[in-house]
Amino acid sequence: MTAPPDVWKIASVADAARARAAVDRIATDGEAPTLERVRFLTALTARLRHCLSRGGDWELRLHVRRFAIGQSACLEASLSPAGDREPDPRDETSSLTCPLPHRPARKSGRAATSLSQALLAADENTAAVLSLLDEQEDLVRLHREELHHTNQGVLALHADLETAARAQRELLEAERTARAATERARRLLTFLGDASAAITSSLSHTAILRRLSDMLVPEYAERLDVWLFDEEEYEDHDDEPAHRVREHSAAAVAAARTGRPQHAAAHPGALPGVDDLPPSALSPERPLLAIPLVAQRLLGVLTLTAPGPRFDKDTSVMLVELARRVGVALDHAHRYQQSRNTAEALQRAQLTDLPTPPGLLLAARYLPATWGMNIGGDWYDAFLQPDGSVLAVIGDVTGHGLHAAVVMGQLRTALRAYAVENATPGEILTRLHRMLGHLQPDLYATALIARFRPGEPEVLWASAGHPPAVVRGVDGTVRVLGAKPGVMLGIPLPYVYKDHRADLSPGSSLVLYTDGLVERRGQGIDPGIGRLARALEALNTLELEQNLDAAADALLKPLLYDSERDDDVCLLLCHTMTESPDSSPARGSVKSSRREGGFRESL
């Protein structure tokens, strides 16, 4: 609902002032907000001034528009030319509005208002505006102070965040460093374990030192030198001599004298448990690390040349520990070699010199194992009985080393003693079985005994669990004496061994051997016996009678040339001479022979 408009004629400044005062009074009565009222009056004054500057008469129309019940009213003011004059396009024709929270008490603004009252009213508006400005300034000041405190707090927060970020970076760096150190330690421990397994898996001094050099150079050392005090004792018989140091550094000499690791460089290394020395004349540019090789005694010195400008502390600790394990491995290898040499010497000392009976050629071979302690159990023997017959014996004692060599000697001696009574091969084995079970209940042996009588075209034999003998006939056919052998000697049960006969006409050969010749790991013994039979078949009677040694080597070569021997080997080759009227004494001069260990070079 809208009240009829009030129309004011504006022709002079006084008219404009009175109209403005009336509008102010209406807005004040309607309790218009101070700022809204001042903005409204200021805009109206500007339009009145603009109209007066253009001249002519103008009409000011005031409307108080009322909306629905419960809603506020609105004061509208508009200026337009009086009369029929056309409005200028430049005139502002839109209405000015001012909200009125309440309906004005006066119905009209026509009441007389003096200019002084209007001026005072204007001052009141100005004072109200200034009061609001003061309030705003107070608020702005408060906001500024709050903003300052907020900025200080933000700066402090930024500082705290920067400190936290720095601490986080330090923690991450520390974690990265710790992770790298852990990984380096893990890598060193892994290398130490692998290196230890590699060097302790061998009982050859040369192999140990070669593996050590391969593992350390060039990652952990530029070069490696090993000074062994008893170098002659550390040379392997079937390998190259151990690496020798011809000129020793002062650090190596100090390590040998003090038994402590020594570090020689231009600057102290400060390595854990290592003494520092001046740089070595042998390596003035690179540091040296000399580490004693110690087991139960001081064996030598390991000297390492740094792969870079210095030795890492953690790496030096690993190298010192590795050198300790190398010393133990070298000591074990030395003790093994001593035991092996002793067993081999004892074994060779007990091997018999072959007899030279008429009509029979004998040749023997003994080859020790190329690695391991599998020495001392195999033996052969051949000797004359009182009745003129010849006993050929081949045997193998279970177990290896000195103990097996000693038991083998006891069996050999007992066998010769039982044979004095002209006992048959089966009777001799039966007595040996009872003796071994009584003297060595935890040790067993295999053996095969063959008896040759002059003029008899057969051989009498008995076996105690031994690989079967192989026979080559005069026509070149080869057969295996496949009769079932008796039990091994020493098995804890009573047993009587049976004698067997086999044809052995003049010009025939009988081969006795131990399992090391024919047995291969994972293959069994039968394929090896087949290879031996083919090698024996390839020989001819003339070769056998002219040079039995060469024939023995010819038998060994195809069976041993392509494999390492993890067991010792015995071979006893027996050949019966053909009846030939032109047999010469020269041939009889080589009727028997013995060779130990010489076959290696012929292969």
Biggest sheet character: 6 strands, mixed
Based on secondary structure, the structural category is alpha+beta
- Average residue-wise pLDDT: 83
Distance between the termini: 133 Å
- Individual helix count: 14
Low-confidence stretches: 237-243, 580-603
Oligomeric state of the chains?
Answer: single chain
State the helicity in percent bands: 40-55%
* Strand residue percentage: 15-25%
Task: Indicate the overall shape.
Answer: rod-shaped
Rg from alpha-carbon coordinates: 61 Å
**Biggest sheet strand line-up:** 16-15-18-19-10-20
Number of beta-strand segments? 20
Task: Detail the topology: elements first, then pairings.
Elements: E1 6-10, H1 13-29, H2 34-54, E2 58-66, E3 73-81, E4 96-100, H3 115-200, H4 205-216, E5 223-228, H5 250-258, E6 262-264, E7 275-277, E8 288-294, E9 298-305, H6 313-350, E10 360-367, E11 378-384, E12 390-397, H7 402-419, H8 425-439, E13 445-452, E14 458-464, E15 470-472, E16 478-480, E17 500-503, E18 509-513, H9 515-518, H10 526-537, H11 541-546, H12 548-560, E19 569-576, H13 585-588, E20 592-596, H14 599-602
Parallel strand pairs: 6-7, 10-20
Antiparallel strand pairs: 1-2, 2-3, 3-4, 5-9, 6-8, 8-9, 10-19, 11-12, 12-13, 13-14, 14-17, 15-16, 15-18, 18-19
Helix pairs in contact: 1-2, 1-3, 2-3, 3-4, 3-6, 4-6, 6-7, 7-8, 10-12
